Amino acid sequence: MKLTQQRSNWKIPFFTIWTGQAFSLVGSMLVQFALIWWLTESTGSATVLATATLAGLLPAVFVGPFAGALVDRRSRRVVMIVADAIIALATIGLATLFALGAVRVWHVYAIMFIRAVAGGFHWPAMEASTSLMVPEEHLSRVAGMNQALHGAMNIVSPPLGALLLGVLSLQAVLMIDVGTAVLAVVPLFFTHIPQPQPRPASTAAEAARPSLWRDVRQGLRYVWGWPGLFTILLMSTVGNFLFNPAFSLLPLLVTNYFGGKALHLGWLEAAVGIGVLLGGLVLSAWGGFRRRILTSLMGFVGIGLGILTVGLAPASAFWLALGAMFLVGLSIAMTDGPIMAVIQAKVAPEMQGRVFTLIRSASKAMSPLSLVIAGPVSDLLGVRIWYVVGGVVCVLLGVSAFFMPVIVHLEDNHGEPADLGGEKTVAVPVPVRLAE
Fold first, then answer.
1. Could you tell me the pLDDT band of residue 418, with boundaries at 50, 70 and 90?
2. Cβ atoms of residues 80 and 124 within 8 Å
3. Distance of CA 373 to the CA centre of its chain
């Protein structure tokens, strides 16, 4: 059976897996909301919240490139099964600590770190599998559906999390995530995911002794050889440096500035979710501009305007912050969806695990530093400074990008260096091995 024949019947296998992952996403977001609110109520410290975010972020920066190389080497289906299982086991351990009354703040940090490590393998495996299961002409719409899914989860999860915390123990909320993880794993046992042929080694010695580091270097050279993508990564790095503290400290903005409670935090996160949902639905129906990067740049400017408005909103105008967060969510969908579709359509299948994780790692590389700085500075000056500065910088970067040909022509200047050589070649998809 050829790949094109398999893709003609792509909907049932793909959406079987996609639905299971959707359930898992609900559980994961409930856990995230519950743990962040517990840390907020227990400590009230910006430094603690920044450290918790850092625990979930470090694996993406340092483990990501090697995770991507392993994803490209191994069965992506097996990678997702193992990753989901590890996340479930870690959550069971934390629920047990809560049930025994023995939990400490550092326990939460540790579990967040473990979940992030496992997620660092799961995420690129799922994204790299999508391009092998979904025809290219549907990738933008599937990206829009993924944005809509995350938006819907952002709508449902925060209010649901606040409600559940009012009627259930925290350990019971954690066990919901374990149940949804099972729903995600079971379909993977019965659904086939195509696996690309590995990229051939450039020398006989490399073929005899495969090197994980060589695979990582291939990914680095691939991204470096795509000028537009590399420039986008620089923009993303600056944006993440400013935005990660703003979002990680949102609970303190709610409690200390707006005088709200868990429900108000839920409303803000739900506003983001509604925006992402609407943006994802629009993107899935529309597909974006012909040059998909223009859609992303428009969204990037929108994120900056929304964040800036949150920072400038008076304490008595919580409704204005809600509207601004809706704009942020709408803009996130318009920013992320088209970029994801470009990568899935243009990057060779056997390189996608590495490229996805390298992009994620590079874009978040400065975030740990920002979080280390953000906690003490916010305790001293307040959290609004991050929203104002981040919003202004994001708007300026987004507007200036419209006048940069290397970004505007992102899809046209795509290329990759030959493996460890100095020449550039155009990326061409390789045959797909249907048997795992």
1. very low
2. no
3. 23
Residue 432, SS3 per DSSP: strand
Distance, in Å, from the CA atom of 358 to the CA atom of 362, rounded to the nearest integer, reads: 6
Name the DSSP class of 254.
I
Contact 125, 323 (CB under 8 A): no
Confidence (pLDDT) at 422: 40
H or E element in which residue 417 lies: strand 416-417
| Domain spans, the chain | 3-195+224-419
pLDDT at 246: 77
pLDDT value of residue 211: 65
The whole-model pTM stands at 0.62
Helix (H) or strand (E) run with residue 433 in it: strand 432-433
Q: What's the pLDDT score for residue 238?
A: 83
Beta strand 416-417 pairing with 432-433: unpaired
What's the chain's length in residues?
Answer: 436
* Distance, CA of 380 to CA of 391 (rounded, Å): 20
What HEC string does the chain produce?
A: CCHHHHHCCCHHHHHHHHHHHHHHHHHHHHHHHHHHHHHHHHHCCHHHHHHHHHHHHHHHHHCHHHHHHHHHHCCHHHHHHHHHHHHHHHHHHHHHHHHHCCCCHHHHHHHHHHHHHHHHHHHHHHHHHHHHHCCHHHHHHHHHHHHHHHHHHHHHHHHHHHHHHHHCCHHHHHHHHHHHHHHHHHHHHHCCCCEECCCCCCCHHHHHCCCHHHHHHHHHHHHHCCHHHHHHHHHHHHHHHHHHHHHHCHHHHHHHHCCCCHHHHHHHHHHHHHHHHHHHHHHHHHCCCCCHHHHHHHHHHHHHHHHHHHHHCCCCCHHHHHHHHHHHHHHHHHHHHHHHHHHHHHCCHHHHHHHHHHHHHHHCCCHHHHHHHHHHHHHHHCCHHHHHHHHHHHHHHHHHHCCCHHHHCCCCCCCEECCCCCCEECCCCCCEECCC
d(CA 74, CA 112): 25
Q: What is the pLDDT of residues 341-363, one digit of tens each?
A: 777 777 777 777 777 777 777 76
Strands (E), 85-137: none
Taking phi first (over 0 means left), then psi (-120 to 50 degrees means alpha), and beta for anything else, what does residue 420 get?
A: left
Distance CA 52, CA 99 (A): 21
What is 3-195+224-419's CATH topology? Growth Hormone; Chain: A; (1.20.1250)
